[in-house]
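Worked example

This section walks through a single chain of length 153. The input is the sequence exactly as stored; nothing has been trimmed or padded.
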Amino acid sequence: MGRILVVDDEELVREVIKLRLERDGHQVDTAASEAEAIEKIRTANPPYDVVITDMVMESENSGLEVLKAALLRDVLTEVIILTAYGSIANAVECLKRGAYDYLEKNIPGVDVYDLLALKVERAMEHRAESLGLLKRLQTYQQTVAVQQDEPLD
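Given that input, the structure is written out below as C-alpha cells.
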C-alpha cells in the first residue's frame, strides 16, 4: 500500500490514526511537530504518498508549512489537513495551496478515523492516476523527440 506521514501534536490522535491506517496495510510514520514533519518529509526516500497533518500545532499555520514542505519535496504527494478549528475560509485556503482534502476532527455522529481512512484511499488512487499521466506524458515527449531527430524521407 502507501507510505504515509501523520503529523499531530496530540500523541493519542497520532497513534489512533497510525493504527487505523496500518490495519489497512499502509506503512505509517509519525511526527509530533511541524519541524519534525518537515525534516521527515525532506529526508524521506522515496517521498511520502500521503501526508496527514493537523492544521494548528506550534502556530496557526503549522499545517500550511507542512503542506508547503510536502509539495516542494514531491508535487504529487497528497496532503490531507486535519483540524479541530475548522472554517470555510481556512478550508478554501488549504485547498488553494494544494491540499488534497480538509477534514474536521470533530464531526458529530461520524467516525472521523473511518472517514479519514476512506479519504486516504481516494488520495492514493488520485496519486496513482497522476503518476500514470506523468509517465504517459514523458513517453509521449520521448516519442516526439525521437521522431524529430529522424530524417524525413
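What to look for: The two ends are 49 Å apart (CA to CA).
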